[in-house]
């Protein structure tokens, strides 16, 4: 969440026990200065998906309502729920047609189960069991690689995500000041905020 070409923050996502856990730190910075210690970087998209982002705040704030509007229009016109792969495809198409200064991880649960997607700047999409991004992403990936298991419970996945964010916050100047963590279960998105990742990581 820094200026123009930098993607300073830490976001992570994990699939666990039929659900998706997304997490981020809470620091926003501009030109090397901390501009906020209470930034929200994980947002619900409807009631069955959520998006964690790093990059320009304005672009993220434009993207999330666009995705929510598409979900509502799709479900109204077709009288059926929009699948998470369809939402990921729409997100990728949006990135191709109107490049935004964001990197993001999209997670959700539909009738086929949990899905977690990462995107590149050109709109490429990858479906993964766990992911990290942002300037703290490489450090966070180290934690995810060593601790992720497809048998994790949701509580364990929340703890792993918190440890990944905490580890990144120790090494990355653009990450820190707490934790946002969301659990998506196919019916709702539960979002919590903590001043210290240790509240969840233990």
TrEMBL record:
<keyword id="KW-0645">Protease</keyword>
<keyword id="KW-0378">Hydrolase</keyword>
<protein>
    <recommendedName>
        <fullName>Proteasome subunit beta</fullName>
        <ecNumber>3.4.25.1</ecNumber>
    </recommendedName>
</protein>
<keyword id="KW-0068">Autocatalytic cleavage</keyword>
<dbReference type="Pfam" id="PF00227">
    <property type="entry name" value="Proteasome"/>
</dbReference>
<dbReference type="InterPro" id="IPR023333">
    <property type="entry name" value="Proteasome_suB-type"/>
</dbReference>
<dbReference type="InterPro" id="IPR019983">
    <property type="entry name" value="Pept_T1A_Psome_bsu_arc"/>
</dbReference>
<dbReference type="GO" id="GO:0019774">
    <property type="term" value="C:proteasome core complex, beta-subunit complex"/>
</dbReference>
<feature type="active site" description="Nucleophile">
    <location>
        <position position="9"/>
    </location>
</feature>
<comment type="similarity">
    <text>Belongs to the peptidase T1B family.</text>
</comment>
<keyword id="KW-0888">Threonine protease</keyword>
<comment type="subunit">
    <text>The 20S proteasome core is composed of 14 alpha and 14 beta subunits that assemble into four stacked heptameric rings, resulting in a barrel-shaped structure. The two inner rings, each composed of seven catalytic beta subunits, are sandwiched by two outer rings, each composed of seven alpha subunits. The catalytic chamber with the active sites is on the inside of the barrel. Has a gated structure, the ends of the cylinder being occluded by the N-termini of the alpha-subunits. Is capped at one or both ends by the proteasome regulatory ATPase, PAN.</text>
</comment>
<keyword id="KW-0963">Cytoplasm</keyword>
<dbReference type="InterPro" id="IPR000243">
    <property type="entry name" value="Pept_T1A_subB"/>
</dbReference>
<comment type="function">
    <text>Component of the proteasome core, a large protease complex with broad specificity involved in protein degradation.</text>
</comment>
<dbReference type="GO" id="GO:0005737">
    <property type="term" value="C:cytoplasm"/>
</dbReference>
<dbReference type="InterPro" id="IPR001353">
    <property type="entry name" value="Proteasome_sua/b"/>
</dbReference>
<dbReference type="GO" id="GO:0004298">
    <property type="term" value="F:threonine-type endopeptidase activity"/>
</dbReference>
<keyword id="KW-0865">Zymogen</keyword>
<keyword id="KW-0647">Proteasome</keyword>
<feature type="propeptide" description="Removed in mature form; by autocatalysis">
    <location>
        <begin position="1"/>
        <end position="8"/>
    </location>
</feature>
<dbReference type="InterPro" id="IPR029055">
    <property type="entry name" value="Ntn_hydrolases_N"/>
</dbReference>
<dbReference type="GO" id="GO:0010498">
    <property type="term" value="P:proteasomal protein catabolic process"/>
</dbReference>
